[in-house]
Design goal:
- The chain has 256 residues and is of the alpha+beta class.
- The protein has one domain: q2cbj1_9rhob like domain (Jelly Rolls, Sandwich), CATH 2.60.120.
- Helices cover 24% and strands 28% of the residues.
- It contains seven helices and 13 strands.
- A hairpin with a 5-residue loop joins strand 2 and strand 3.
- The longest helix is centred in the N-terminal third of the chain and has 12 residues.
- GO terms for molecular function: 2-oxoglutarate-dependent dioxygenase activity; iron ion binding.
- This is 1-deoxypentalenic acid 11-beta-hydroxylase.
- Keywords: Oxidoreductase.
């Protein structure tokens, strides 16, 4: 999206709902470039691993703590993403990690209801002043297991989490009450669309039982004021160099 800038209305929506959908954050050319590179990425294929859902079906993902000279890092550093997240969270942000979710047709597993802060709390982060930007590489629909969120559930605060399959899920009793009190939204996206969401927002996704893949890039951020007090698997604060949006198109798929 050329010259995208977050508005006060968008900030208000995020703070009320816990999420904000941005259509066309990547334009068609950028989105196709991301898809082409990801699908030709041997390192991505080799580093991906599974997390089984409650039914024993794995979700494949690849997590990267470090930024490098690639298209994923160019997006995670991009002005349109970083400045938007900083405005939504009300502070300077730094790169916490980024990951690719690889839900293949008919075999992609579910993510159980959880809050990202349910994980990150244990990494020495005192505050839930954290968030993620999910960018659709493929069209995301109910049929292929799109993100589901409970509108406004970030206002509940942190919920205790425990083991569900190979995953960490939110307390089922609290989730059941939240499902009665908050609107469930299926976040259906076209390729290149994005959703920014708060670390305390309850979210999940279903298994992919369709014939269509659902890949996504998720860029995660922490605020400077929330610098973790101890070492963990994700990094502590360091200033993030923001790149111009145009740098996304500097990267090309490997020659065949």
């Amino acid at each position: 999206m050329e010259n995208f800038r977050i508005t006060s209305d968008g900030i208000g929506t995020f703070r009320r709902d816990g999420f904000l959908i941005v259509r066309g954050l990547l334009d068609e050319t950028e989105g196709q470039r991301l898809s082409d590179i990801a699908r030709a990425d041997r390192e991505l294929a080799e580093s991906a691993y599974g997390r089984k859902d409650a039914g024993g079906v794995p979700v494949m993902l690849s997590v990267r703590n470090e930024l490098s000279d690639d298209i994923y890092s160019a997006i995670a550093r991009s002005r349109r993403v970083v400045e938007t997240m900083a405005a939504l969270l009300g502070d300077e942000v730094y790169h916490y990690h980024h990951k690719l979710i690889l839900k293949e047709p008919r075999v992609g597993g579910a993510w159980e209801w959880h809050q990202d802060y349910g994980y990150w709390y244990n990494n020495g982060c005192l505050l839930p002043d954290m968030g993620s930007c999910l960018i659709a590489i493929d069209r995301a629909t109910k049929e292929n297991g799109c993100l589901q969120v409970l509108r406004g559930s970030h206002l509940i605060g942190r919920i205790n989490h425990g083991t569900t399959g190979d995953q960490t899920g939110a307390d089922p009793e609290r989730v059941a009450v939240a499902l009665d009190r908050f609107e469930r939204v299926h976040v259906e996206l076209e390729a290149g669309d994005a959703v920014f969401f708060h670390a305390n927002l309850l979210h999940r996704s279903d298994q992919n039982r369709s014939d269509d893949p659902r890949w996504a890039l998720i860029c995660c951020y922490n605020t400077k004021r929330n610098d973790p007090y101890c070492e963990s698997r994700h990094p502590r604060y360091s200033p993030l160099e923001i790149w111009p949006d145009e740098r996304v198109l500097e990267f090309s798929p490997p020659a065949t």
